[in-house]
Amino acid sequence: MGGDTNEDTMLNEKLTGPIDFDPAALRAKYEEERDKRIRPEGKAQFVGASGRFEHFSSDPWSETVVARPALDDHSSVIIAGGGFGGLLMGARLNAAGVTDIRIIEIGGDFGGTWYWNRYPGAMCDIEAHIYMPLLEELGYAPKHRYAYADELLEISQRIGKEYGLYDKVLFQTSITGAKWNEDDARWLVETDRGDAVTADHFVVACGRQSLPKLPNLPGVDEFEGHIFHSSRWDYAYTGGDSAGNMTGLADKRVGVVGTGATALQIVPAVAQDAKELLVFQRTPSTVGVRGQQETGPDWADMTKPGWQRERRENFQSHVQFGSVSGFVRPEKDLVADGWTAAFEILAEPESVVAERLGRAPTAEEMADLSVINDYRAMNEIRARVEDTVKDPATAEALKPWYQWWCKRPGWHDDYLESFNRENVTLVDTHGQGVERFTRTGVVVGGTEYELDCLVMATGFESGISFTHLTGFELEGRDVKLSDHWANGVRTLHGMSTDRFPNLFFIGGNPQTASSVNAVHLLDEQAQYVAHIIGEATTRGLRTVEAHHDAIDAWVDNIVTSPKNQAMFEFYMQCTPGYYNAEGTAKTAADLFTGGRYPGGPLAYYALLRDWEAEGSLDGYSLDAEPS
Ligand code: NDP
Question: Given the CA of residue 113, which atom of ligand 1 is nearest to it?
C-alpha cells in the first residue's frame, strides 16, 4: 500500500505492465478532491448523541426496562458487553472450563452491533461462513452468502442459549465504574442499576464503534421534521421491518445524510418505499459487486474439523498486502468474493512481478506498483458507476476519487441502480456536506431541500479514548486507566496492561492486528484470554498482570515499526474520514486502528497461539494464592 510514488518507476511498464491511463492526472485529481474535504475543525465537526440527539442513544428495541433487584454477588469473570466479543468470550471461557461468569450488557438482548443496527437492508458484507461466530461448534449453516441483520441477531441469541449465557447476563445495564481491590484481588463493577458485583477477572468487550455521531450543524433545534440515526431505525414512523414494506414512507420526502457502508444498504430499501428519496453525499463510497445469493448446506465443506478457522485464514491470506512469514497465499481462494478479487489486483505477488521484471522487485518498486494497481482497481469501480447509472451527471458525482483503502470499501448489488429510479435524487455536496438544518429541511450549497424525515447515516464516534468508548473509568493499582494511558496506550498483545491485574480487553483495540473480518480477530483474542483465565484458575493464581518490560517491548515494536510509519503516511495522503482522524492524525497511534502489530493479522494470530502453546504465560507476573 504505497503512498508517494516515484514517477520514473511508475512509468516503467516492465514493473507495472501496460498502463492505459494517466497516473499523474489521477494523482492530481485525488489531491484536489482530498483538499476540498479537509476541515480545520477535524473530528470536532461531529457531536455525540446529546441535546436534540439525546434519543439517538436510547434503546428502541427494549423500551420497557425489566425490573430486577440490585446484585452484589461474585463471579470468576465479569464480561462487559454482550455483542459478538462478549459472546465469544463466554463461549471460549466455557470451553476452558470457566463457567462462573457474569455478562453486563446495555442493550435488551445479545447481539451488540446487530442488536442496534436493524435498519432496512442491514447485513454484513463479509462472507457469513467466515464472519458468523462459532458456526462449527453450533453446526449452523448460514442462509445467505452475506448474512442479514436478523440472522446475525438470531445467531447471537443461539449462542446465548447454547452456552447458557442468558442465565448469566444483566441486560439493560450500564457499567458506571470498575475498580481493582488489591486486598481481595477482585474487580468491583458498579452499574446504573445499583449493582456492585465482583469478579476475579474482568474482560472488556465493548466494541469499537457503538456511539452514534452527527455533524455539528447549525439550526438543529429548528428542524420540525422527523429525524433519527441509522442505528436506531424508527419503524413506528416508517412502518415495515428490516425486510422493507415501509408503508409509512409512501407519502414522505425522505433524506439520507451520508453515503458510507450503512447508507449503501439503506438507500436501495428506502428507494423502494419512499415517495421521494434525497441522498446527501459528501464523499462517494466505492461500490463493488457483492454477489449476494442463498447458500445451501454444501456452500463450504463444514464437515472437516477446523473448517471455519481454515476458511478464515484462507480469506485473510488473500486480503493482505505483502507476504507474511509462514503464510504463503494459498492457490485456492475459498471465499472468492469481491474482497479477494480486489486484492488480486491490488496486491500482486512478488513472484508474478519478478517474472515481468526479470529480477526480484525492490520494496520501493512493490510500493509504487501498488499505487498503479490501486488506480486500476479504482478505474474498475468508476467504470461500474458509469455502466450502471444512466444520468451522466449523477454517475460522475458518484465516482470516488481516492485510493481504494482510504475509506472502508463498500459493496452492493442495488445501490447504484437506485439512482436510476425517478423518485431518487443524489444531492452532491461537492465534498462540503450538509451545511445546516432549517425548520423544514436542510441546506446544501445555499439551496434548501424540504424534507419530512431525515435519516442520519453519519456513523459512530471514533478516535475517542477507551473510557469514553466504554462509558466508564477503570481504576487499577492506584491509577485510573485514562491517566495510565494519557501519554499513549500501553498493552501486552493489545489485550492487557500493567497496574491493572486480571483485566483484559478484546475487540478492535490498538496494538492488535486489524482485520476486515472483525469476528476473526475477536475469536482469536477470546481464545487467548480464555487460555490465560483458564490457566490462572487451574494453577490457583491470585493475579495475572502484564509485566511492564514485556509491555515496553510490545509497544516499542509497534511504535518504531516502519510498516506503521508507511501506513500512517498512506492514510495522511487519503481523503479525510474516520480512518485518519478526519485528516488530523499526527502519528500512527491516532489512526482509527491505532498502531498495529506490524506482521499483520495472520502473524498476530500465530503469535498468540504459539505463546499459548509455550505455556508459561510469558510476559505476565503471576501471583499464586497463598496455600
Ligand atoms: P461512516 O462513518 O462510514 O459514514 C458516515 C457518512 O456520513 C460518510 O459518508 C460521511 O461523509 C457522511 N457525512 C458526515 N458528515 C456529513 C455531512 N455534514 N453531510 C453529509 N454527509 C456527511 O458510517 P457508517 O454508518 O456508514 O459505517 C459505520 C461503520 O460500520 C463503518 O466502520 C462501516 O465499515 C461499518 N459497517 C460495516 C458493514 C458491514 O457490512 N460489515 C455494514 C455497515 C457499516 P465523508 O465520507 O465525507 O466523511
Answer: 30
Alpha carbons 386 and 393: distance in angstroms, whole number: 10
For the chain, the straight-line distance linking the first and the last C-alpha, in angstroms and rounded, comes to 55
Cell (9 digits) for 411: 459493496
For the whole model, what pTM was predicted?
A: 0.96
The predicted pLDDT at position 326 comes to: 55
How buried is 627 (Cβ within 10 angstroms: 0-12 exposed, 13-18 middle, 19+ buried)? exposed
From the CB of 39, is ligand 1 less than 6 Å away? no
**Closest Cα to atom 32, ligand 1: which residue?**
408
pLDDT digits (tens, 9 = 90+) for 607-617: 999 999 999 99
Name the CATH architecture for the domain at 213-285+424-459: 3-Layer(bba) Sandwich (3.50)
pLDDT band at 3 (very low <50, low <70, confident <90, very high): very low
- Ligand 1 in reach of 280 Cβ (< 6 A): yes
Cell (9 digits) for 567: 501506513
Question: Which residues, other chains included, contact 356 with Cβ-Cβ below 8 Å and sequence gap of 6+?
Answer: 14, 15, 17
pLDDT in tens, 566-586: 999 999 999 999 999 999 999
Q: Which fold has domain 74-208+462-549+598-618?
A: FAD/NAD(P)-binding domain (3.50.50)
- Domain-by-domain residue ranges, the chain? 74-208+462-549+598-618, 213-285+424-459
pLDDT digits (tens, 9 = 90+) for 445-484: 999 999 999 999 999 999 888 999 999 999 999 999 999 9
**Cα→Cα distances 496→110, 399, 490, 500, 599, Å:** 25, 43, 8, 8, 19
Mind listing the pLDDT tens digit for each residue in 37-59?
Answer: 999 999 999 999 887 778 777 89
